Amino acid sequence: MAENETLECITEHERILQEIESTDTACVGPTLRSIYDDQPNAHKRFMEKLDARIRNHDREIEKMCNFHHQGFVDAITELLKVRADAEKLMVRDITVTAQTEEVIRCRIQQRNMATTVEKLQLCIPGTTSAFVYYAALKTMEQLEKVYIPRVSQYRFCQIMAENLPRLREEIKEISMSDLKDFLESIRKHSDKVGETAMRQILTAQDLVDFSPVYRCLHIYTVLGDRETFENYYRKQRKKQARLVLQPQANMHETVEGYRKYFNQIVGFFVVEDHILHATRGLVTRAFTDELWNMALSKIIAVLRTHSSYCDDPDLVLELKNLIVIFADTLQGYGFPVNRLFDLLFEVRDQYNETLLKKWALVFREIFELDNYSPIPVDTEEEYKLVVSRFPFHDAEIEKQDFPKKLPMSQSVPQIYTQVKEFIYASLKFSESLHRSSTEIDDMLRKSTNLLLTRTLSSCLQNLIKKPHIGLTELVQIIINTTHLEQACRYLEEFITNITNVSPETVHTTRLYGLSTFKDARHAAEGEIYTKLNQKIDEFIQLADYEWGMAESDGRASGYLMDLINFLRSTFQVFTHLPGKVAQTACMSACKHLSTSLMQMLLDTELKQISMGAIQQFNLDVIQCELFASSEPVPGFQGDTLQLAFIDLRQLLDLFMVWDWSTYLADYGQPTSKYLRVNPATALALLEKMKDTSKKNNIFSQFRKNDRDKQKLIETVVKQLRSLVNGMSS
Hints:
Blueprint lengths: L1 H21 L5 H9 L5 H82 L9 H15 L7 H46 L3 H4 L3 H12 L3 H19 L10 H24 L6 H25 L3 H20 L5 H32 L5 E3 L2 H10 L5 H5 L4 E3 L4 H20 L6 H29 L5 H16 L1 H12 L13 H28 L17 H16 L5 H23 L9 H19 L16 H12 L2 H7 L12 H11 L17 H22 L1
Antiparallel strand pairs: 1-2
Helix pairs in contact: 1-2, 1-3, 4-5, 5-7, 5-9, 7-8, 9-10, 9-11, 10-12, 11-12, 12-15, 12-16, 15-16, 15-17, 16-18, 16-19, 17-19, 19-20, 19-21, 20-22, 22-23, 25-26
């Protein structure tokens, strides 16, 4: 049993030795303690075992050393050689270290210099940055007054101090360059600035970057040269104002030309207004007022000139709207604009002129296309359509069955409608003018009066004088003007309904249309009389009397019967004319016919007239008298119309009856049977009937054997000459 314990002890010691050989030295303590804690005398046996292990390792080491001895000797030899090289290297390393320290010191100096340069550059940023000029000047001032004096012994500080004035000038130049760029930019873009301001009413600061002005102003102020800057800025802006106020030559041709002109001006003064309020004295109120007054005079002169070139009312209306927006915009910035609104009255007159020219063309076209016949209406709908366009009321016509005719021609409702359209067009100009209803009413009535008394009146007068307008057309024109005259009160009501100004108002202007249509009607009446006379003259020129005929044909001349028929049919057309017009025309025609026949008898080219020709002539005059007595136009009292031929009748009766004794005896008496026979007329005709040629004694018809008759004729001639001479004396 003791033998087994000994074996176990040996085995345990072997394990402990292996553990000591293979374990970290920090763990050996507990292992050794276990030997002493074991059986008694165990440590002695362990020590013996340990000594045996050491001797074993020594033998192993000796074997190893013997095996590597030569290599070890060689290594020692090499190591000795390396030692010498190491000593050399150490000397050189010490040198390098010293040089490295010197390099480090140089690098530190370079870094410090770079930092210094960087800081100096930050101190004078005006040389490189356009946005911190003012700060740069402040920094330079600090350098000059505070920091440079502290290190003035250094050369670079002296150089810096010498360069500061130059740097200040460079900053001035750069800031001035920025200002010039700013001025050029706002000159180019002033129309855009103005357009936006007029459309949206924004502030200038919303539209323009003013920082170049502020910077330049601050810089010049800091440098004590503000007055120079102010003078330069004001001078440049005055120049730009003159450029802005100069219009394009063709500005009046389009609304865009006017719009760009106004936009530029608004843009200019929006900028100046902001400068006035934001810069404390760069510009003054007096300066901007001076600029505005100069601009206002130029603007008014330009608009007067260019608007006068315009003949398009729509363009003039657009111009008016632009002027209103322009004035309202600048008034919002505090600029006085009363003169612009006064100018609008002149533009309004120009607008009315263009309207009048436009409506003159409208009226002419209506007159040219009119058929000058009463308007036919076949149905109730057609009738209502006409009276909806023109205020026509006639109880008698309304009672008539369809189809029927209205007395006026188609031009009447068209003219009436166009006058209303003119009033609407004229009203458009009054919008947004900030005028009272009374002023607008007055403007409308005045412009409408111009339309009626000038434009329409002129068109009517020209129409009446046109060669193709005959008697039928003239009659219709008279009827038309009568109805248009009656419609004037409805135009008054039309304007009143628009303006809500009572026509009874003291200052209300009345429409003068009544005089226009009366004048046109009188002109048409006069033209009727003239054309009737011209037509009578045409028939008279067809007369072909055989003045030497022995006796009459027993019937009236053909030309005269044609003339009578023409007059009869013409006066039938006159039934729609006012009574006095038809009567005057008829009386005028009969008087002209009577005068023409008398002139035919007394024509100096006619040398001889036979009694047969007198009888034939008498038959023609009888037809004229019959026509007059047939009442071709109603309304004459008694034989008023026949009296147109009384001179001819008494003259012919005197010769037909040969009643010279009565004529001579009663001459000068108011009750004389031949009161209308002038002695000179009787003498002229009697001399045409005397036997002067002896070849054709026309008096042979009267008592050939009565020589006393010839003596009587001679006596009558002498007495007539005596009467004529007495009248002339």
